[in-house]
Amino acid sequence: MFRFWGAQLNAPVEIQFAPFNQLIQTLLDPASIFAANAHGVNVLLARIEDLGLDPARAAENAAHLADAIRGAHERFAVPLIVCLSPPSPAVVSARMETALEGVPGVQYLAADRVAQLYPVERVYDPDADRLGKIPYSEQYFAALGTAIVRVAHSLSAPPYKAIALDCDNTLWSGIAGEDGPTGVTLDPSRRALHQFMLEQRNDGMLLCLASKNNEADVLETFDLNPDFPLQMRHFTAWRLNWESKAENLESLAGELSLGLDSFIFVDDNPLECAEVEDAAPEVLTLALPENAGEIPHFLDHVWAFDHPVVTEEDRNRNAYYSQTRQFGREMRGAGDLQKFIGGLALDVRFAPVSAATLPRAAQMTQRTNQFNFAAVRRAVPDLQALLSAGYECVTVDVSDRFGAYGIVGLLIWREEAGALDVDTFLLSCRALGRGVEHRMLAFLAGRGAGRVRIRGVPTAKNQPALQFIHDVAARYGQPNGRYDLPAEEFRDLEWRAVARPAAAPVAKPVRADGRRFVEYAHIARNLSTPARIVAAMRQPAAPGAHAMRMTAAERRLAVIWSDLLRKPDIRPADNFYDLGGHSLLAVLLTLRVREEFGIELPIDDVYSAGLTLSELARKVETYQFARVSPEEYQAVLDEIENMSDDEVLAALAREGVEEPA
């Protein structure tokens, strides 16, 4: 399943297994493959009965495992995904999320969350469990594997920050300008859409409107429908006019100081969606299903809406943006900018990163693009590794007379030979323009080192950071983008207005063909249930020319072998184990034969070293024949007796048997 999703996400995966049934040993061993893994994620899957203790003491077993996780996570360089998967029916289940809550770098995937997203009728497979300790049905493995990949993807993919919504036939059924504000309706599916978007807002997403409407009609529609879960107060910004939606999205991005690639656009109209995709391919554009009843399921399976870590700053993001907009309005109206900045009552607080602030610190490295000198993305384990290596890491908390902005900045450095080498210097765009960045540089200069060294690595978006360091320290710049600053000169740095020549108009870059994001809509529409995922994973390879000379049983078995062995072309003389088969795949082969032919193969037949496709087909045919009753056998003979020679040859050809010489 992991390899299947790697292909779907265009991110081929390398999978390594820890020793079987050594969960706690792998967690605690400093030389284990978990400790050595420097890329991707570590995944710990356990059933309560597999922990080696009395299954009746499920809660105690889970507590022992949680203790091992808490004691091990700091040694890992990558996130750890933990899933206590469903036990066999005779064993009492247990939970661990409370015990692991707040542990940095650990993501707990609850079994009931897997069941909620990917429900499966038959979870446990007693035969596979008995034969090879493979406890679940193929569909449940599809559900479990997909849920794990989904969490891993959300931990590494650049997050979206804003959702722009159409109004008519998206937020409500009907057209506000024609049906009137009280003529539109909120069917159950669109009410679910409202609730979904409110949850996204609570998780830190900014909600916007981008719709072709008269603004007065939309405002009146919300005003006269107070029962709508979403109201105008929930939207950070809007463009309600008859302009191009792509242009309106670009305008919204400018107002919110976000890149277009931070936006998700949701509309019911496929034509409007196609126009946005063409004009603004950076935006993730989602066309809602034509059948309104499918909308809730569709939204639940757009992976771009997943938020594995939600910080306090996320929950307050909408309030922060309101403060930022108020700040912008007053600044534009100020007659004396220097006096305005001086009267902000700016309070900038620096604090060493802690277990409580590590998730927010990591999140800022992944989200902050404009004021970020190095633009290095890091997860919690990456930051823990830097701290262990002697780096210092400080968060920056900001408030002014407009309100509190929370933790908006991050500094990481290491002192060597009397100089401060800055690894990370970043500040959220919502705190720019107040002088916070100046206070941050002054803080570094005041750490006691003689010099402060900063390198500006140009990216597609970090021009504000590079402009800042050029404005305050141009004479200390070097050709490689490094700045070597005398600390004494910058210890009292404060904001000051900088006169710059007007920038020349910059032509829009030509966008490269192809979308840069995952095909989230395709996944939500076509790969959102275990049955569909299994069917897609089992897509048979095109048969080779020799397939025409196979019997019907051989052809059906060749499809199963091709799927299990990941081989595109199977021949009758091929040996299962020579092609890469092993004991676990042999168990799966037994189960697939039972599913396809309705017979239970003796395990000795499958574990034979000389197992070829043709030999297995003969065994299957023998067992099928043995199940035929005398009456059925006589009926077949009678039918053949009444057939002409041509009809017999045609029947043999249909079964893949060549005409006898």
Helix-strand layout with pairing:
Layout: H1 2-8, H2 23-28, H3 33-36, E1 42-46, H4 58-72, E2 80-84, H5 97-100, E3 106-108, H6 111-117, H7 126-132, H8 138-156, E4 162-165, H9 176-179, H10 188-202, E5 206-212, H11 215-223, E6 237-241, H12 245-256, E7 263-267, H13 270-279, E8 284-287, H14 295-300, H15 312-315, H16 317-333, H17 337-342, E9 347-352, H18 358-367, H19 380-388, E10 392-400, E11 403-416, E12 419-427, H20 436-445, E13 451-455, H21 463-473, E14 482-486, H22 487-490, H23 520-526, H24 530-537, H25 552-565, H26 583-597, H27 603-606, H28 613-626, H29 630-641, H30 645-654
Parallel strand pairs: 1-2, 2-3, 4-5, 4-7, 5-6, 7-8, 12-13
Antiparallel strand pairs: 9-10, 10-11, 11-12, 13-14
Helix pairs in contact: 7-26, 8-24, 18-19, 25-26, 25-28
Work out the helicity level. Answer: 40-55%
Looking at the structure, what is the overall shape? globular
Radius of gyration, Cα only, in angstroms?
31 Å
Alpha plus pi helix count:
30
- Rounded mean pLDDT is 85
The structure class reads: alpha/beta
Q: Could you tell me the number of beta strands?
A: 14
Strand content: 5-15%
**Neighbour order of strands in the largest sheet:** 9-10-11-12-13-14
Count of structural domains: 4
Low-confidence stretches are 502-516
End-to-end C-alpha gap: 47 Å
Please describe the biggest sheet, giving its number of strands, its sense, and whether it closes into a barrel.
Answer: 6 strands, mixed
